[in-house]
Amino acid sequence: MRRKLFAVVFALAALGTGLLTPCRAQEFWTGLTLRAKVTKMVGVQVEQQFRFAETIGAYKSAVTEASLRLRPWEHLGGALSYRFTDRAGSGRADDNDRQRWSADVFYTLGSGDTQWTLSHRFRYQQARTAGEADGEAKTYVRNRLLLAYNLTKRVQPYVSGEFFYRLNGRNENQLNRFTLGLETRIGKKFTLDTFFRVEKEKNVKYPETAYVVGVTGLYRLSFRRKDSSDAEDTVPASL
Fold first, then answer.
1. What three-state secondary structure class fits 103?
2. Could you tell me if residue 239 is inside a domain?
C-alpha cells in the first residue's frame, strides 16, 4: 500500500513540476478521442485536439484525426489514420495548415492483469502543406516505447520515449519526445490522461525544446451487441 501511495505522489509531483517549469516554449494540449469497436477485430477512432502556446495563453492549432484500427490478435494491432491540422494561430508564415497520412503497427507485452505493460509502436507518416500537392512531403519513421505500471485497475502511471527519423534523403533523427503521464479510468468507458512532455528538436537550423502539459480524454463505444472480451483495454489508452 505504501509503495502504491508513493507511486501516485511521485507521478502527481512530476506532473505538477511540469506545470510550473519556466521554459521557452511551454504548451498546453487538450482534447477528446472517441473510440468504437465495429467488430471484434476492427474499430474506428476520431480525435479532436486543441493546442495552446506562449505560457498557455495563445491558441496555436487544432488537430482533427480519423483512424481505422485493426486488432487481429490480442497483443498485435495496427492503424491507418488521416490528420488535418489547422495552424491559424501559430503566427509563423511557414506553419500553414497540414495534412498527414500515417500507418501504425503496435505490439504489447502484458495486460490489465499483469503489473507492468510494455508497448512498442512503429509509425510511418507523410505530411504536406494543405493545398500544395506539388510541394515536398515530409516523411518520418517514428518509434515509441511505452512502459506502464498497473497501480490499480483504474490508475496507470507510464513513461514513454519517441524518436522521429526524417527520410526524404535526409536520413536523420530530428525530434525526440519524452513523456511522463498518468491514466485514470473513470467508469467503464472513459479514461483521463494527464501528462508532462518534453520535445527536443535535433539536426535543424534553429533547434527548440518544448515543454508540454496535456489533459486528454478517451471515451469508448461499441457497435457490437456482445463485447465481453475487449482487447483494446489490455493496452494503455494512448495506443
1. strand
2. no
Look up the CATH number of the domain holding residue 100. Answer: 2.40.160.40
DSSP state at residue 210: E
pTM above 0.85, yes or no: no
Q: How far apart are CA 238 and CA 160, in angstroms?
A: 11
Residues 94/64, Cβ–Cβ less than 8 Å: no
Measured CA to CA, the distance from residue 148 to residue 162 in angstroms comes to 15
**Mean pLDDT for the chain?**
84
> Residue 132 corresponds to which amino acid?
E
The residue range of the domain holding 23 is 2-234
Q: Name the nearest CA neighbour of 197 among 175, 182, 209, 180.
A: 180
What's the gap between Cα 132 and its chain centre? 27
Radius of gyration over every alpha carbon of the chain, rounded to an integer in angstroms: 18
Q: How many domains does the chain have?
A: 1
All residues at 6 or more sequence positions from 9 whose CB lies less than 8 Å from its CB, including other chains: none
Q: How confident is the model at residue 91 (pLDDT cuts 50, 70, 90)?
A: low
How far is the C-alpha of 58 from the C-alpha of 21, rounded, in Å?
Answer: 18
